């Protein structure tokens, strides 16, 4: 009789995150959930991680409603699992104890069976309280040890000995758990490391413990690592389903089924039924843009470990900002950022900190701008890193952020922070006029301003789909542009379409050439109406000197300087602290733009006053878009 290897299907969380940047609407994939369950795949990862915030940030949907919708399809027996980031729960920032406890209780309330719980720094202290809350809520707790391969030439952590020592600390601290997962989000741990780690863990935990190994195909090692883990004694490996399998995702379950043929191991699945489920899933996702980088193996990733879920999330954001051409530079810069940052595992949120700092080092002068998350990490505000960060970087971060290094527990720091916790979230809801439910409190606490925008009904969708060819009439409508043109205090309606300009209902043909109108030619250069049209109600041509005199008389030249403020990157307007009419000083923050998961405080370019804003809070803007006008 073959030995059964359990598998969890990650397609509906990690798959979505690793391919689509977690931007997927619930209704679009529910038929695939139903097909997966019908094929015998009833242990499904469906939420948490980036699939919590992304629903509010990009999909204009509620994560709790998504959980319940999936449960309605799977039935009560399915094991629905989510991912938690220790004391960060489902956000990039760490939380206070009341929010951590609320996370577990709400996820239990909304259809979840199991929570996989990790700390990116492998600081076991960050797993103690969060793990206890998960257990107390009646959920299954899968405690995690985070793996990655260090870039070539680096040593100091991320060895089997380091991972087994972390597991021993988990046991020593008495953290309650139902299973243990060794989680490699970047897919860079090699088969030998995996084998030795799983072998040692099995010896520590005994034959009855449920051991799990998780990796990605990003570096091309997933199946060889899974076979090594199975040989070493793992109980479970994670697989995905096409079209979100391989590349930046987990390997496809059909690939592992094939790899295990003629061995003593079996997944207990019918490959034909799996194939049928995948065909349904492919049809569900047919309209979604599939980034080419999501399907490829990237040998270079060993030099700059990045999780699949972070890789495509970042490339999607760079597409939004029209800066994807800088991606290779930024990824290359990650190597140095990791080397001096303390060797935290490259998994969210730390992977995002690495990417943000590499982004800043490339887009600005090196170490000129410290990403908030990276700076706080090297200063100790998220816990203890596996090795000490470079003292020079600690000094730079401390000076630029005006924060001292610390060894205090992040939980104790967060308890004192007036901007964190349930009471702070309640205040945000009250000020926004939003109902005071536990779900809304949690959304406000973990998603901040963008969560509030969703709750106020002001959120917008930003999901990348395949562009379909436009119909002729749609294209024609796009080519038509309407303006109101004011000449000598009179408004004219002007519609531009092709080589025709219609002024107050009268069509004119026109051409545009470089250069000024020759002196004396103004009277003969006026556009003529199209044949058969009525005379235009436009002012008669006049000598240039006379026109200039009239313009100067109608609108005297102002001695004040007017400046347009443009968006440096695409993103969402989070806050506008300076209102129209306010006097501002050069360098003072007048607008906050969220882009690349970073808050960018935009300074006033001059001393003066805000004449007008052309955007509002919650609005999605493009790079180069005019945000407002100042005068001074």
Number of E-state strands: 22
How many strands, which pairing sense, and closed or not: the largest β-sheet?
8 strands, parallel
As a percent range, the share of strand residues is: 15-25%
| Helical stretch tally | 21
- Give the radius of gyration: 29 Å
Which properties best describe this structure?
632 residues, alpha/beta, eight-stranded parallel beta sheet, four-stranded antiparallel beta sheet, globular
Give a quick summary of the entry.
The chain has 632 residues and is an alpha/beta fold. Helix content is 39%, strand content 17%. Strands 2-9-8-7-6-5-4-3 form an eight-stranded parallel β-sheet.
Descriptive notes:
With 632 residues, this protein is of the alpha/beta class. The chain contains 21 helices and 22 strands. The strands form five sheets. An eight-stranded parallel beta sheet has the order 2-9-8-7-6-5-4-3. Strand 5, helix 6 (125-136) and strand 6 form a beta-alpha-beta unit. Mean pLDDT is 89; it is low at 521-528 and 530-558.
């Amino acid at each position: 009789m073959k030995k059964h290897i359990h598998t969890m299907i990650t397609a509906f969380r990690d798959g979505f995150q690793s391919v689509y940047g977690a931007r997927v609407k619930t209704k679009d994939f529910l038929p695939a959930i139903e097909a997966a369950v019908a094929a015998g795949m009833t242990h499904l990862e469906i939420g948490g991680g980036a699939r919590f915030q992304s629903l509010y940030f990009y999909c204009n949907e509620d994560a709790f409603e998504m959980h319940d919708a999936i449960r309605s399809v799977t039935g009560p027996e399915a094991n629905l699992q989510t991912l938690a980031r220790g004391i960060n729960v489902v956000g990039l920032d760490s939380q206070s104890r009341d929010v951590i406890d609320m996370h577990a209780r709400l996820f239990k309330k909304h259809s979840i069976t199991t929570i996989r719980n990790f700390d990116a720094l492998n600081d076991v202290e960050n797993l103690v309280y969060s793990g206890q809350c998960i257990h107390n809520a009646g959920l299954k707790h899968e405690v995690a040890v985070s793996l990655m391969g260090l870039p070539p030439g680096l040593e100091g952590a991320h060895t089997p000995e380091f991972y087994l020592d972390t597991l021993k600390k988990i046991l020593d601290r008495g953290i309650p758990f139902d299973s243990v997962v060794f989680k490699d989000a970047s897919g860079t741990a090699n088969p030998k490391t995996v084998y030795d780690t799983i072998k040692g863990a099995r010896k520590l935990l005994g034959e009855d413990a449920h051991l799990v190994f998780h990796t990605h195909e990003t570096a091309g090692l997933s199946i060889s690592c899974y076979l090594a883990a199975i040989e070493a004694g793992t109980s479970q490996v994670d697989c995905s389903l096409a079209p979100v399998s391989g590349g930046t995702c987990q390997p496809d379950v059909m690939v592992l089924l094939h790899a295990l043929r003629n061995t003593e191991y079996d997944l207990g699945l019918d490959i034909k039924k799996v194939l049928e489920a995948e065909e349904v899933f492919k049809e569900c996702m047919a309209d979604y843009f599939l980034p080419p980088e999501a399907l490829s193996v990237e040998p270079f990733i060993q030099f700059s470990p990045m999780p699949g879920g972070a890789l495509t999330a970042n490339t999607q954001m760079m597409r939004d900002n029209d800066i994807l051409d800088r991606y290779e530079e930024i990824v290359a810069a990650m190597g140095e950022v990791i080397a001096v940052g303390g060797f935290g595992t490259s998994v969210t949120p730390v992977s995002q900190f690495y990417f943000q700092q590499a982004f800043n080092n490339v887009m600005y002068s090196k170490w000129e701008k410290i990403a908030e998350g990276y700076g706080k990490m090297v200063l100790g505000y998220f816990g203890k890193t596996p090795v000490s960060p470079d003292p020079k970087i600690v000094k730079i971060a401390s000076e630029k952020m005006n924060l001292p290094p610390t060894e205090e527990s992040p939980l104790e720091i967060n308890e004192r922070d007036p901007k964190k916790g349930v009471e702070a979230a309640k205040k945000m809801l009250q000020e926004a006029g939003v109902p005071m439910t536990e779900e809304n409190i949690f959304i406000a606490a973990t998603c901040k301003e963008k969560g509030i925008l969703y709750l106020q009904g002001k959120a917008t969708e930003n999901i990348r789909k395949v562009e379909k060819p436009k119909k002729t009439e749609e294209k024609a409508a796009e080519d038509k542009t309407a303006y109101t043109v004011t000449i000598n205090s009179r408004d004219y309606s002007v519609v531009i379409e092709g080589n025709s300009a219609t002024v107050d209902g009268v069509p004119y043909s026109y051409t545009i050439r470089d250069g000024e109108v020759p002196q004396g030619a103004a009277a003969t250069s006026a556009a003529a109406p199209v044949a058969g049209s009525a005379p235009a109600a436009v002012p008669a041509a006049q000598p240039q000197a006379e026109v200039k005199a009239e313009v100067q008389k109608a609108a005297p030249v102002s001695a004040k300087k007017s400046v347009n403020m443009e968006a440096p990157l695409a993103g969402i307007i989070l806050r506008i602290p300076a209102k129209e009419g306010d006097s501002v000083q050069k360098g003072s923050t007048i607008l906050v733009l969220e882009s690349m998961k970073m808050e960018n405080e935009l300074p006033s370019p001059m001393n003066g006053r805000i004449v007008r804003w052309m955007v509002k809070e919650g609005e999605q803007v493009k790079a180069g878009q005019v945000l407002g006008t100042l005068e001074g």
